Task: inverse folding
């Protein structure tokens, strides 16, 4: 399966949220049909036709566009569908730009998934971010999307102004009740050219540290995953435009945020087993498939350092092994010298 991304920065969006500068985030500077055609042309140079493929309108509030422009853009993906280059379309929009007329148009043109820029379900946080919609409007939009047989995506943020961890947790509980199909998690960054950048420069806004952003994102990831919501991305795509010098002023940016979150969750999952193994023997051996070693170790070996400090003075050894999953075993006292060579 391949996704053909079509960026329409700020298109159809009536608000300038305090954190948003989509022209920087997406690397695209126009929402014109000709611009969309050029993007599609570029991707078709390598995409192999398949009904499993999908075209995705990113960046703007698609259903906020003039209806005529929506139809022109969807005509482009209609052509791709007729040629069996793709089988479906997805797009993103605002919760307050969902109604029966718009959804009938989307369904007619092969749209199967609509992602909502939810960010938070705390009205105080939404006001501080100048989102321009309420938590109630999110619930109404999700209900209407399901009524029209469309899959629902939610985009959530951590580290927003006036958004403590307690607010994040409450939002997650409410999102679980809405039962979306997919989710994205974005730690808030301070981007050049945004209202938030000015607040940051005045010392009025302090972004999350990377460690705290990982912890909060991991909480959201785990809660949604357990509820059956598929997480399709954590953190912004690290493209050349976003990563250009001076664009990110502050905040918990990492090009592999998703892996950091999964590594953190792996540490949470394995720590009780490691503690039990340390209690049962004179040391601990973690047998790990090579493909999982990076996530197991964590950023700059942080997980291994954490576990070794936890079980000290006992030994903890990482061993690459021909196993399908990570296994934790203890070293009997009389076998300590026979343990695998410490890495």
Result:
């Amino acid at each position: 399966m391949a996704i053909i991304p079509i960026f329409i920065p700020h298109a159809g969006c009536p608000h300038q949220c305090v954190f948003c500068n989509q022209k920087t985030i997406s690397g695209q500077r126009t929402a014109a049909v000709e611009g969309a055609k050029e993007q599609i042309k570029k991707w078709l140079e390598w995409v192999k036709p398949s009904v499993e493929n999908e075209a995705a309108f990113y960046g703007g509030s698609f259903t906020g566009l003039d209806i005529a422009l929506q139809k022109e853009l969807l005509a482009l993906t209609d052509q791709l569908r007729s040629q069996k280059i793709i089988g479906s379309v997805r797009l993103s929009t605002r919760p307050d730009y969902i109604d029966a007329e718009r959804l009938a148009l989307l369904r007619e043109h092969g749209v199967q998934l609509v992602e909502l820029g939810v960010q938070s379900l705390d009205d105080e946080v939404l006001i501080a971010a100048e989102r321009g919609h309420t938590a109630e409007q999110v619930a109404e939009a999700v209900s209407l999307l399901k009524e029209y047989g469309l899959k629902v995506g939610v985009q959530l943020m951590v580290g927003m102004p006036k958004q403590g961890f307690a607010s994040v947790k409450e939002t997650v509980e409410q999102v679980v009740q809405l039962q979306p199909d997919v989710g994205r998690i974005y730690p808030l960054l301070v981007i050049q050219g945004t209202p938030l950048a000015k607040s940051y420069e005045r010392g009025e806004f302090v972004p999350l540290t990377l460690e705290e952003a990982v912890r909060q994102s991991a909480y959201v990831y785990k809660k949604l995953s357990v509820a059956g919501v598929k997480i399709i991305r954590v953190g912004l795509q690290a493209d050349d435009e976003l990563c250009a010098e001076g664009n990110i002023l502050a905040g918990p940016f990492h090009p592999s945020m998703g892996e950091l979150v999964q590594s953190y969750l792996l540490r949470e999952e394995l720590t009780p087993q490691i503690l039990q193994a340390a209690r049962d023997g004179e040391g601990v051996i973690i047998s790990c498939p090579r493909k999982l070693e990076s996530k197991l170790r964590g950023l700059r070996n942080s997980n291994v350092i954490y576990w070794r400090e936890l079980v000290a003075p006992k030994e903890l050894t990482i061993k690459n092994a021909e196993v399908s999953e990570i296994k934790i075993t203890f070293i009997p006292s009389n076998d300590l010298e026979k343990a695998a060579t410490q890495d």
